[in-house]
């Protein structure tokens, strides 16, 4: 009996030791390809986090909507099915935090530096804090870049959009943007866009070049306009309850790893977009058009009223604060 008891104690001890050694698993889900800026930064975070915690954390990255599509991933995070996401900023409007749709406004950011002044300053931090009542903690902003327009016809002036079915993310601002151009906005999950373009379910879309190229959209879009009319960025977020429950030293190591991954992500975002444009050009299937100064002015005249139109939804004070900061720099 004593021998059996000893065996049982030793087995329990061994089991507890194995349990104590089990790493904390972070499921990091996203909807784009691994070779996009977001995809590469997610992989860099994995490397940094696992090294910084000496293997106490294991990061499992699931790209290309392997686990969840656009509309599903936020709910999965809130339920704790995944621990980390990097959704585009447009995703938080449908969640009830409409202020994030300020990032969707056409021509709200005249430059990358103007954008960073917002995301890295009090305005950006204040926006992330608004996610906490939803059970979400915001860790960082990741960059993708300014968007181009594409379709199977030339898009030189706003009148060229009339009647086109243009794919958008689920965003009231992007809906208003396309309607201002005379297009018919169509909400589609990112993973469904290529097929929708290929089959004519939609006529065109908007994306940073890296997204367009890695999803092969250039193969089914004859024309591309370098409009830089809007911005696409992401917020890296975690389940708040899970995050708050982590050991303090683990949380600190993950924060440091995220800061390093964010610096890396910003460095590669513009490079990857430039490389994607070159690759699209070399593929020879898409005509690339750069707006003239006169055409750019016409686009701005057509789209800037969307800012006024969305004041009640997003917050007049927030829009004015960003425009005021832009003017001061």
From TrEMBL:
InterPro entries for the chain: DctP_fam, TRAP_DctP, TRAP_DctP_sf
Gene3D superfamilies reported in the protein's UniProt record: Bacterial extracellular solute-binding protein, family 7
Transport keyword on record: yes
Example GO BP: transmembrane transport
Coiled-coil blocks: none
Pfam families linked: DctP
Signal peptide region: 1-20
GO cellular component entries: outer membrane-bounded periplasmic space
Keyword Transport on entry: yes
Keywords from the UniProt entry: Signal, Transport
Stored PANTHER family: C4-DICARBOXYLATE-BINDING PROTEIN DCTB, PTHR33376
Family listed: Belongs to the bacterial solute-binding protein 7 family.
Protein name per Swiss-Prot or TrEMBL: DctP family TRAP transporter solute-binding subunit
Origin species: Zemynaea arenosa
